[in-house]
Amino acid sequence: MLKHERADPAVNHVNLDQISLALGRRVAERLRRQPELLDEARANLSRWSRRNASVATLLRCYAEWQELLERPVDDICALLCAETDEAQRLRQNSPFAGVLSPTEVWAIKASFRHATDVELPAWHGEALRETGQRVADGKEVAVEWETAKRELRERFS
């Protein structure tokens, strides 16, 4: 069973930045081998822009990424791997959702956690595998967190 680390907010923020960087590096590795994944990122931005048309801050972020995705693949990969404030900010709203499977994402996140008294339930790994398969089969799509929260609020309000 995997366990979560309990950390103070400052450490947690640092961990989140490191996880974001590790995810960015993994996406960059994949992107170098499969530059056609840029199409998936562009499709995400297009879909998110339609779903969040009334959220100006997100639209600005999407427009910035749309411009960045016109650059050469090596430049995009360098940005995903950069340890700068700008790259960190951009990775917070990465359009590469769905490029990595949920299982890959979880493995990267788990590598930054240390054992504590908070355990993940046994069913969690199976749920991740099932979700990954649904995404691979096209039965499910990645949705930006802000969109998911809004949709859940609308559904359950």
Characterization of this structure:
- This protein is 66% helix and 3% strand.
- The protein is mainly alpha-helical.
- It has one domain.
- Strands 1-2 form a two-stranded antiparallel sheet.
- The chain is globular and about 40 Å long.
- The termini are far apart.
- 15% of the residues are buried.
- Mean pLDDT is 82; it is low at 1-11.
Oligomer state of the chains in this structure = single chain
Cα(first) to Cα(last) distance is: 35 Å
Rg over CA atoms: 16 Å
- What order do the strands of the largest sheet run in, or round the barrel if closed? 1-2
What is the string of SSEs from the N terminus onward?
EHHHHHHEHH
- What proportion strand? under 5%
- How many domains would you count in the coordinates? 1
Number of strands: 2
- Give the uncertain stretches in residue-range form: 1-11
Largest sheet: 2 strands, antiparallel
Helix % is 55-70%
Class inferred from helices and paired strands:
mainly alpha
Mean pLDDT: 82
Determine the number of helices (DSSP H or I, runs of at least 4 residues).
Answer: 8
